[in-house]
Amino acid sequence: MIVPTVQGEGVRLRAFEQHDVDDLLAGYGDPEVQRFLPPLPVPFTRAQAESYISDVAPSMFAYGGGLYAIADPETDRLLGGVGLDKMVPNRGQTEIGYWVGPWARGRGVATAAVRALTGHAFHTGMARIELLTHRENAPSQRVALATGFQPEGVRRGVLPNRDGGRDDLLAYARLAGDDPGPVERLLPDLPGGELTDGVVCLRPLTPGDLDFYVALHSVEDVVATTVPPIAPSREEMRRRCAWAQSHWLAGDRADLVIIDVATGTPAGEIGLYYQEPRTGQAMIGYSMLPAWRGRGFPTRAAQLVSLWAFAETGIARLIAGALPTNLGSQRVLEKAGFKREAYLRSRLPGHDGRRSDDLQFALVAEDLLREGARLDG
């Protein structure tokens, strides 16, 4: 069967060829590719690579889909793969998947390949293309958003993993009439990857922060202000760290680590939770390790997050809560410019089925503008 060549920006999609064996072997042997493609046999052998090129990939075209090699248009070297599968002809629907070898990452290869194949599929009659990706695969989610795929929800337990369990996948889709992208994000990346005032630095929470996160959320008074006030398990904290990038890309929360600039040590956390995009309201919350308390770090962190949120997002109003007995947290919010607005009775779940009251504070963009004008004057 003759496989059509599809041209993309900086890539060429073509049939797999015998000279791709070594790169296919290296690509499918990469730990990141194996992690997010659990159906791949481990180890992936040369015989399997040769069979993939001679039999598996060509057979996909016979079923109406197709597996394309992503090749460098100048050298023809294999960079990765992209394909269409799970065709539903009467719906004009298919699913797209992709991988990129470690030697070709960071160059926009996957984005270019997905954009090219998506355009080709729509041109040849498809009406809807789905894209499923693991919640912990943030680079793949970035590709989806960059190529116009819109988030639609979570497919629970759809992917068998290598441990005998099942993983959720995030579902994205693009229709033939949709804008080709990128999809506008509610919470953009931080400028330069961090926020800092020279004393504290805020950077996104990552999987590598697990031990710090476990230590922070084992502190008694941090647990007491958790909703509900129950210490999370280590697995729950692992997921929180591993899924932080996904939540940020989805626009529902931004989890940040507060770093002591003088020592480079994680001292606490601050999170922004975008509860109401329609009204432009979000909430912040923060926790500090005991050794770094009394230095004004959470106030500085709250100010940095507030300035970023009002300047770079559609957020117009920030709220925060504090237990009536938590005078320290109330002082943090007041110093950061938040105004007390309400006393909410029995708002929060407490210990042993009891409820706790909550003091509500708020900050709006105009407050910062007025404070800036006052200081300039």
TrEMBL record:
Residues 11-176, 200-370 form the N-acetyltransferase domain. PROSITE patterns: GNAT. GO terms for molecular function: protein N-terminal-serine acetyltransferase activity; protein-N-terminal-alanine acetyltransferase activity. It comes from the Bacteria. InterPro entries: Acyl_CoA_acyltransferase (IPR016181), GNAT_dom (IPR000182), Ribosomal_N-acetyltransferase (IPR051908). Signal peptide: none annotated. GO terms for cellular component: cytoplasm. This is Putative GMP synthase. It comes from Actinoplanes friuliensis DSM 7358. The lineage of its organism: Bacteria, Bacillati, Actinomycetota, Actinomycetes, Micromonosporales.
